[in-house]
Amino acid sequence: MEAQGCVQCAYVDYKGRRCEDSAENEGGLCFWHDPEADKQGDDICERVEAIAKSGRPLTGFQLKNANLRNVHLVNRGCQDGYDLTDADLNHADLRDAHLYNINLQGACLLKVDARYANLNSANLTRANLLGIRLDDAKIEHIRWGSIILQAAESKKLRKRESNRKEGVRRLNEEAEEVCRNIRRQCELHGLQEEAGEFFQKEMRYRRYQLPTYSWQRLVSKTVDLLCGYGERPMRVIAFSAAMVVVCAFLYAMIGVSAGGEIIQVHPELGWQANWAKLMECLYFSVVTFTTLGYGDIAPVGIGRTIAAFEAFLGTFILALYVVVFVKKMTR
Questions:
Q1: How confident is the model over 197-225, as a mean pLDDT?
Q2: pLDDT in tens, 295-325
Q3: Is residue 10 within 8 Å of 29, Cβ to Cβ?
Q4: Following DSSP, what letter does each residue of 194-254 receive, concatenated?
Q5: How far apart are CA 330 and CA 301, in angstroms?
Q6: What is the pLDDT of residues 248-272, one digit of tens each?
Q7: Long-range CB contacts (< 8 A, 24+ apart) of 19-26?
Q8: Residue 258 bridge partners (DSSP)
Q9: CA distance 131 to 119
Q10: Exposure of 66 by Cβ count < 10 A (0-12 exposed, 13-18 middle, 19+ buried)?
Q11: Which domains are present in the chain?
Q12: DSSP 8-state secondary structure symbol assigned to residue 262
């Protein structure tokens, strides 16, 4: 397509919008979408601000190594922030930048210096956050996305055959590093809920680096399921309740002894009678799990083994809950 004798830039963004600028290189790209164009000039900051204020989209801008210190990209009076989706800001200087509510979905923020920047309410979904510096930056209400970019790439790589294991391990290392960095910054800013979320992700990506069938990975997975690496105390309660109920059903099927009488459900009994016996077994299961041991009801047969296992696991689970609960509350 030509306009006034010039070839229009070939870049098309995620919304299907084609750049209106003229192409300046052999690849058919304009200055802003050309990854080889030098963006280190002192006037880049002002030029980017002017484009944003004009209403033109900033999607896909190639701003590698750009000096954007103190850049002001806050779209005042509009619910949506300026759109820098898929932009390349690799090694850019964003110190003291005003980026409230900015849309940086899919952007490359590799080793960006964002110290003292205002990133409140920014959208960083699918952004490459490896090595980003967020010291003293404002990071409240950021939309980080449900999965780290490197982790998403790792999942895709698992389906390939060549060099799959090494590539997956490297990507999970990077994902762990990203989560550790963000988790530390969240802790410094008092964002404890976000810090907890990223701690869980950090531990999961560390687990993915372990051999698939190793006991270390199995233990790590168990801890994740049981308590979310100490960040999910309700999981401990849910597991405890499930175990108590399951054991109660087992006792009801096997039978327990109370004053010489065997308490056991039976198909020939009515539902009311069986329900009463099941409640008795549930009571015994709770007493066993909490290791109270009143002695009014005792297991029989294989039920003794089940009761011993339940009591042992109950002691461990209750101690675990105290640790997890205290950790969560002291934050």
A1: 93
A2: 888 999 899 999 999 999 999 998 988 888 8
A3: yes
A4: HHHHHHHHHHHHHHTTS-TT-HHHHHHHHHHHHHTTTT-HHHHHHHHHHHHHHHHHHHHHH
A5: 45
A6: 999 999 989 887 788 888 877 788 8
A7: 19/60, 20/56
A8: 261
A9: 16
A10: buried
A11: 146-231 (no CATH), 233-330 (1.10.287.70)
A12: E
Of residues 292, 281, 283, 331, the one with CA closest to residue 315: 292
CA distance 174 to 205: 9
**Which of 60-64, 134-138, 208-212 is least confident?**
208-212
pLDDT, the chain, mean: 90
| CA end-to-end span of the chain | 59
Q: Is the pLDDT of residue 163 over 60?
A: no
What's the mean pLDDT in 285-296? 89
Structure confidence by residue, pLDDT tens digits, 38-72: 988 889 999 999 999 998 889 999 999 999 999 99
pLDDT band at 182 (very low <50, low <70, confident <90, very high): very high
Helix (H) or strand (E) run with residue 298 in it: strand 298-299
Look-up of token digits 């490459």: 128
Return the residue matching tokens 């461990």: 316
Whether 274 has a pLDDT exceeding 60, the answer reads yes
Please say whether the beta carbons of 146 and 122 come within 8 A.
Answer: no
Q: What is the CB neighbour count within 10 angstroms for residue 61?
A: 24
Give the number of residues written for the chain.
331
Q: Name the nearest CA neighbour of 309 among 283, 282, 321, 291.
A: 291
Handedness of CA 288, 291, 296, 298 (dihedral sign): positive
Closest CA to 94 of 61, 63, 68: 68
Helices (H), the chain: 44-54, 149-157, 164-188, 192-207, 215-227, 233-254, 271-289, 303-330
* Amino acid symbol at 177: E
Pair 297, 280: CB distance under 8 Å = yes
Which one, of 132, 138, 136, lies nearest residue 118 by Cα? Answer: 138
